[in-house]
Amino acid sequence: MRGMTIKLGLLACVTAIATLTAVAVSAADVKAARAWAGPEYTRVVFDLSGPAAYKMSQGDVPGSVVLDIAGSSVTGDFSAPGGQGLFKSMSVSKQGGSARLVATVDPRAKPKSFLLKPAGDYGYRLVLDLYPGGQSDPGDNPPPAADHDSPSVASAGNDDDAEASAPAQAPLPTRGSRNSRSKSVPAGKPPMLPTGDRKVVVAIDAGHGGEDPGAKGATGLREKDVTLQVARELADQINRQPGMQAVLTRNGDYFIPLKRRYEIAREHNADMFVSIHADAFKNGDAKGSSVWVLSPRGKTSEASRWLADRENRADLVGGVSLDDKDDSLAAVLLDLQQGYAMQASESIAGNVLKALGRLGPTHRGYVERANFVVLRSPDVPSILVETAFITNPAEETRLRDDGHRRELATAVLGGVRNYFESMPPPGTWFAAQAARRNGGSLASTAASAPAAPAVAADAGAVASDAVKAATRATPPRKTLARADTTASVAKASNGRADDNVRDLHRVNRGETLTGIANQYGVSVGALKMANKMNDDNVRIGSVMVIPSG
């Protein structure tokens, strides 16, 4: 009996200790708060001393959001952030054993909250996002268990890392919104020239921002400030070019979810997406620029997501809806579009890397691949540019210099413009210029596209009338590479298939024109005519049209 009593006593002690431990874990102090306002939502972040349990509720007064953090208190040096965007003000108090934070917000704001675990120099954080009335979360804000606010190329080569570092003491001054040269065009409306030709649209993404400062140099230079400066400079230079228009994903110090960044590009029917970053490494000797494209693994995983998501299936930039297609045909069409985008991305990245190489050393000397979220758009060619290593003292010094940032933007522009000059999208100013140089004319709409287009040397830019028949009323902004699916595509587009094109063939090492002709059972003459070739030379990597007869 006595032994049983001792056991029960020990059990009670263990239970009490466990209870006290649980209380201690949840008793996290609120140390500080910050607020950022972007064009689509406002974010308020609370720094906590540890993990915490909390509850969010609507206050009694319209336009108030209450956060009760169990077993917690507010530190004596806590200072409420000033009003920004949808966030107006804040009061703090003690409610029983909990800290109560009451945020006064726009009465129409829709609140969303979640916790973030420690990452980099940040500890635990409670995040309150405020969206305009009636608007749902526009991006892929991390759920309570996630930390991947933004890409951090330097950390481990993938952009599912968390915020990289705390705000620095010596930020680079940022300019406010500029004149119309940096303003974006309305979403969904291609910018047109008086001649009737449209401009090519380049979406420029300044990495990080707001709560996410990115990497930090030895003297306190923050990546988010550098990227915004370079992005603005690049936008200005692009908008001074004939036939080009820039769209900035952000034009201020605020955070944008990763997925939302490439969605902005798609909403503006961008012909290209360029994400600007500054690399970092634990070794300060690492140096050089680099350019990244999406890895094949990223392409495969994104395709699976798109085919599973009914909303995504209804919205490819080229105007092709996958929603009304059976699974097999939808997979083929998506694969064609992704193939085009990735091939174009490779070509663009190579051009930009060469241009950066003329400005200074490159980190590896070749285009690199990774599964970055911002590169996952299935229908917009996308690249990520690491301008330099901000953790390298010499390169950090250059990144502080206006002239060097201008040169970086000029180098990126040169690579981008070179791509459009060599592969002009149909209906654009670049296509019209190419036609004038060649003494001919190019089709500017889907209806007038040639039956047997010329070879697309660096990207699958050959379009079939069958796919175009499924597009929206507006001229398509992207063209789908054709595969051996003519019968299925024709069925999906009411029989409007292009009978003159049977297939596409990418030239591999060691192949000859005669060998390709024999492979498909067509004559060399027909093959040359379909591809407008003047000789028998074929180029490795080029895409050749295979005629039906």
Automatic annotation (TrEMBL):
Q: Where in the cell is it found?
A: Periplasm
Domain of life, per lineage: Bacteria
Q: Which GO terms describe its biological process?
A: cell wall organization; peptidoglycan catabolic process
Q: Enzyme class, one word?
A: hydrolase
Reaction catalysis annotation:
Hydrolyzes the link between N-acetylmuramoyl residues and L-amino acid residues in certain cell-wall glycopeptides
Q: Print the keywords alphabetically.
A: Cell wall biogenesis/degradation, Hydrolase, Periplasm, Signal
Question: What protein does this entry describe?
Answer: N-acetylmuramoyl-L-alanine amidase AmiC
